[in-house]
Here is the input.
Amino acid sequence: MKRAALAIPDSGPLISLGVAEKLDLLLKLDMPIYIVDHVLYECTNDLTRLGARSIVDFVENNPECIHIEDTFVGKAAKQERDSGIRKRHRGLGEAAIAEFFANIDDKIDSAEPVLILFEDSDVQRINTFIQGNVHLLSTKGLLVGMEECHLIESADAIWQSIINAGRIASNKIIDQPSKYSSEASFWKPVVPESV
Here is the structure.
């Protein structure tokens, strides 16, 4: 079995964990964290949005393990914003994600599985969009798995704090190992047993 590196191509998990003030849970996974540049922009460009300030603080306070992955799409969108052009581009986030995954082997050895943390409830769409040696995990699946590992006391309590903050998130529990590897992938950290 192979342990995965974490990639966050979806703003949903960042926002949900941010509103619950639980982004630090990602550090308990003890793996490098890759966030697509335009995804980070989408959830932090307006600091009055749910979770935005927590996300900015989390990224700034953990540069040793959080890697913001620049994409051509993200750079082009930033150049437009910097030049004063203000227009909405549908699908820029998806385009940046697609570009990131097209070049992921430059960052992570292709033999290593990549843990994809997402919040989109449409797994079929995710599976067609992101292929290869990936392990899919929903935000709710992350919390349930962390509770099973005794890294948190209650997945339900954290989920309720996300809802109480006004966040409407997908409640699907997805923990789908890679189908493209001869070895099963896993993401849960090994927690030493109490003596």
Observations:
- The mean pLDDT is 84.
- The first helix runs from residue 11 to 19.
- The longest strand covers residues 114-118.
